[in-house]
Inverse folding.
């Protein structure tokens, strides 16, 4: 059981780190950029050469006390002093921030580290830290004490003036609320869109962070400009004229590998009947899955108007009937199998090239084409299908779906 709790705490710690990085970048200066797990948990580079190193300490108990001899404090000081000793940072242009969900012990000299640098009793803070570093018997912190004691008095003063402690900080759930209001609420026409927008920005952010972590030492910073641009683009998809399209540039999580030759669903059988290449059938299967997951997302987020998808499907069926009738009129020999296949392909190709199809969106400002394609494949998967490509498919359906003896 303790292992389970440890795993949960670790997972929450990472989520907290990721979300706090998002919060820090969102609240930073216009030219800010951020990396995670480089010099510190979160590194925020600001205008010019100024940087902020943020060390995050999340505790399940909000009453967890940060004291002069706390492990959280001294592990953090060990890292910062080590960076200084190795000339990776200077104290003059670096803000060193310890962020904890616990609270500072009121009897601790650390209380002053919540104040602006000019209002602190630096000598008192150094004396308190010196006392711990010289008297503590905690062997696990020996490296931290060694690093700290290697600093001169002037360097300790620079260190203390560079450090800021934020206690009782936002935890995982509070962070999401702080990001939504006020930073996202101005981007959407109604508060009902806040949660769906946040969900999508968080998904984009997590993917960016994971890619960054996978880069190793030479991480590409995520800029505030990128973040604000993503918020602006995604916010356009919320309102009466558009729906969010989540899979324009990616597939849904856990998308199954398509099986163009073995898939027995009616819409796939239809595509084999007009002799499409496997790559085309595979793309169609993915479009079908994208549309399925997208509909589920909209339903989950309460974004659909009553009967909206049903009306869209009726429009698609109506356009299909018109296009299919035009193509069937061109058939010269109804007994020519190749000509019938060509007719079916032309009807299928009209999904993308015929303006009466390609202009069909659920809402006027919707982007992308996978919902149109995927919805048509969904209609083609009904038994009997509402749309079909091969002119004789309805007559052939029963034979095609009946296994050979």
């Amino acid at each position: 059981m303790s292992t389970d709790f440890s795993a949960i705490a670790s997972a929450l710690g990472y989520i907290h780190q990721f979300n706090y990085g998002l919060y820090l970048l969102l609240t930073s200066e216009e030219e800010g950029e951020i990396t995670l797990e480089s010099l510190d948990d979160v590194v925020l580079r600001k205008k010019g050469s100024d940087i902020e190193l943020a060390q995050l300490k999340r505790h399940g108990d909000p009453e967890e006390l940060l004291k002069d001899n706390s492990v959280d404090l001294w592990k953090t000081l060990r890292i910062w002093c080590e960076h200084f000793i190795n000339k990776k940072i200077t104290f003059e242009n670096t803000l060193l921030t310890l962020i904890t969900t616990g609270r500072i012990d009121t009897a601790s000299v650390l209380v002053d580290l919540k104040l602006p640098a000019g209002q602190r009793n630096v000598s008192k803070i150094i004396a308190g830290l010196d006392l711990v570093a010289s008297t503590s018997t905690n062997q696990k912190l020996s490296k931290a004490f060694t690093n700290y004691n290697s600093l001169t008095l002037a360097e300790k003063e620079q260190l203390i003036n560079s450090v800021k402690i934020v206690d009782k900080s936002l935890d995982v759930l509070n962070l999401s609320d702080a990001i939504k209001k006020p930073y996202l609420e101005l981007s959407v026409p109604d508060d009902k869109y806040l949660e769906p927008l946040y969900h999508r920005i968080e998904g984009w952010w997590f993917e960016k962070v994971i890619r960054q972590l996978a880069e190793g030492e030479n991480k590409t910073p995520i800029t505030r400009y990128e973040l604000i641009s993503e918020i602006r683009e995604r916010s356009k998809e919320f309102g009466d004229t558009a729906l969010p399209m989540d899979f324009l540039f990616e597939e849904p999580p856990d998308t199954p590998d398509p099986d163009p030759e073995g898939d027995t669903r009616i819409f796939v059988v239809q595509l084999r009947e007009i002799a499409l290449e496997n790559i085309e059938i595979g793309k169609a299967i993915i479009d079908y899955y994208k549309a399925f997951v997208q509909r589920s997302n909209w339903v989950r987020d309460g974004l659909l108007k009553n009967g909206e998808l049903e009306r869209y499907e009726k429009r698609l069926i109506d356009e299909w009937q018109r296009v299919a009738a035009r193509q069937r009129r061109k058939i010269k020999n109804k007994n020519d199998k190749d000509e019938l296949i060509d007719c079916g392909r032309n009807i299928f190709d009209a999904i993308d090239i015929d303006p009466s199809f390609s202009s069909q969106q659920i809402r006027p400002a919707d982007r992308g084409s996978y919902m149109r394609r995927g919805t048509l494949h969904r209609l083609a998967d009904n038994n009997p299908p509402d749309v079909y490509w091969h002119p004789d498919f309805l007559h052939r359906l029963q034979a095609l779906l009946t296994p050979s003896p």
Summary: The radius of gyration is 30 Å.
